Amino acid sequence: MSITETQWRTARHVVRRAVRSSLHCSIASRNPDGSPHVTPIGSVLLDHDIGTAWYFDVFNTRLAANVDADPRVTILAVDSGRGLWLRALATGVFAAPPGIRLIGAVGPPRPSTPAEVARFHRTIGPLLHTRGGRTAWGRLARVRDIQVDSVDPISIGTMTRPELSRS
């Protein structure tokens, strides 16, 4: 399936809002026994290039082992911002997709670039300057690229405009 510029722009917006509002996206992978495994990742970022994303490979040993064995993943990003949800509840319709699924494959770990680290630090803003922020995000040496094959906006029935969602 081909991802359009409009779909990718929407995906970038929703993922950015998800990371800012709930501090993570969820990445589903497959355990060696075939059971599902879901990991919260706070550093999922979508590039300007359609279908290109990445995350910092820290603290997630099970996810790393799973994607080394089977790189297929589904990422769920939900914009938990109160404004979006309160307006939707008041008006009965979401002005933008409240969430999005990205289906793709994760690549091997590679060294992060200074530009990638700087971009993520801008995303988390002042949280980096807290004790926990420095501990969690002070050393971001490795990233994994994600090749996104499809973008699937979340539907919440009639509250989601048809042109914004398919699921």
Could you give the topology of this structure?
Blueprint: H1 5-22, E1 25-30, E2 36-41, E3 45-46, E4 52-56, H2 61-69, E5 72-78, H3 82-91, E6 99-111, H4 114-124, H5 131-137, E7 142-153
Structural class: alpha+beta
Multimeric state of these chains? single chain
DSSP strand content:
25-35%
Helical element count? 5
Q: Give the neighbour order of strands across the main sheet.
A: 2-1-5-6-7-4-3
State the CATH class. Mainly Beta
Mean pLDDT, all residues: 91
Residue share in helix: 25-40%
InterPro entries: Pyridox_Oxase_N, Split_barrel_FMN-bd
Protein name: PPOX class probable F420-dependent enzyme
Domain Pyridoxamine 5'-phosphate oxidase N-terminal: 15-91
Pfam families: PNPOx_N (PF01243)
Characterise the protein shown here:
By secondary structure, the chain is of the alpha+beta class. The chain has a single domain, classed as Pnp Oxidase, Chain A, CATH 2.30.110.10. The chain is 33% helix and 31% strand. It contains 5 helices and 7 strands. It has a 7-stranded antiparallel beta sheet. Strand 1 and strand 2 form a beta hairpin. The chain is globular and about 45 Å long. The protein starts with a helix and ends in a 14-residue tail after the last strand. The model has no long low-confidence stretch (mean pLDDT 91).
